[in-house]
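Thanks for the sequence, V.! I ran Cytidylate kinase right away. Repeating your input here for the record:
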Amino acid sequence: MKKITIAIDGFSSTGKSTLAKQLAKHLGYVYVDSGAMYRAVTYFAMQNGCIGPDFFDKQTLINSLPYIKLHFEFNPDLGFAEMYLNGVNVEAAIRTIEVSGYVSKIAEVSEVRAKLVEQQQQMGKDKGIVMDGRDIGTVVFPDAELKIFMTASPETRARRRYDELQAKGQNVSFEAVLKNVEERDHIDTHREDSPLVMADGAIEIDNSALTREEQFEAVLELVAKVSKSL
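Predicted structure:
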């Protein structure tokens, strides 16, 4: 089948990355977790005193962007690429509830988005790529052959995220996770620069009642249909 670009957008904790990894592995495509890139910038901001519970020094972060180097390295033991920030593996550090609490604010910054979108477009110039995020089908790859928009109820997404954090040994309450999910939804859909919306031509998938396997099979059918039509 002819290689295509697959753009997966949607709300937080809808399983975008899980689906994207499954597709990339099955199809032999490159997988890029754009959310990890924003999380890495967020982690940098936290570590360098640019953001905290009651402050956000946006200009210092913007001035620091030339010194933020991001890249992915494939980990054969895990079966996916991990996020590196300035040469350091930050895959575990960027997945905490603390980073989740700030990432949508960081993603609102136009200069941050411009830097990361440019890198993401470069990664996908040869097609054969699966990328997930908030603006992949609308901004990064508006001409993607297949665009997916994933959604589920806030409670369903919070439960999934809560279970995931618990499994990693992070002591958080379900109420805190649900609040974080709802706050991120509001920021993601109301920001001025590249708000979360369903791209033109995207196919919406509400996976509230779907298993990972059912979702994967449904999207594989879409990939086959699109590839054959080219």
